[in-house]
Amino acid sequence: MIKIRKYTILGILFIFLIIPIILGIFNNYIYARELNLAVIFVLVVGTTFFLVLNKLIEVYGYDEQSFDAIKNQDVINALINKDNKSVIWIFLPMIIIIEELIFRYYMIGFLLNVVKLDVISAILISSLVFSLFHIHIWFRFKNRRILLINLGDSFLLGLFNGYILLTLGLIPCILIHFTLVLILYYNIYKRYTK
Hints:
The chain is mostly helical. The protein is built from nine helices and no strands.
C-alpha cells in the first residue's frame, strides 16, 4: 500500500512538473544550445569517468553491511526477485525525470534567469542541493557508507549534468542519469547474485 501511494504521488508530481514546460517556462534548456568538439569531449570523458566511478563504487564502495542494506533498494530488489519490472522501466525513469526537472531544469533556470547568478554558481548550488536531497538515503538504509557514496556521486553527477543541460539540453541529462543509475544498480545486483 505504501509503495502504491509513493508511486501515485510520483505520478502526480511528474504531471505538475511537466505543465510549466508545456507553458514555455525555461524552454531554452530543453534542446541542445551548443554542440562542438569541446562539448562532445566533455560528454565522452564525463560519461567514461562516471562509468569508472560506478565500477569503483560497486567493487570497493560497499562493505558487507552496506551491501546487505542496499539490496533492499527498490530497483535492486526488483532485479534480485525478478519481479515488479515496472519499478525499473516506469518508476525509475519517472524519478530521474523528476530529479532532472527540479534540480537541473528548474533550479538552474531559476538561478540563471531570475536570480541572475553566473553559470558556475548556478551549477554549484544546484549540485549541492541535489546532493543534499539524497540525505533521505540515510533514513532508508541507516548506513553511513551508502550515504557518503550517494552524496558524493550525486554532487559530481549534478556538476556534470548541469554542464550538459546548458550545452546539450534536458533530454541528454535524463538519458545520462538514467543510464548511469541503471548500470550501477545492475552491477550491484550482479555482484550480489554471484
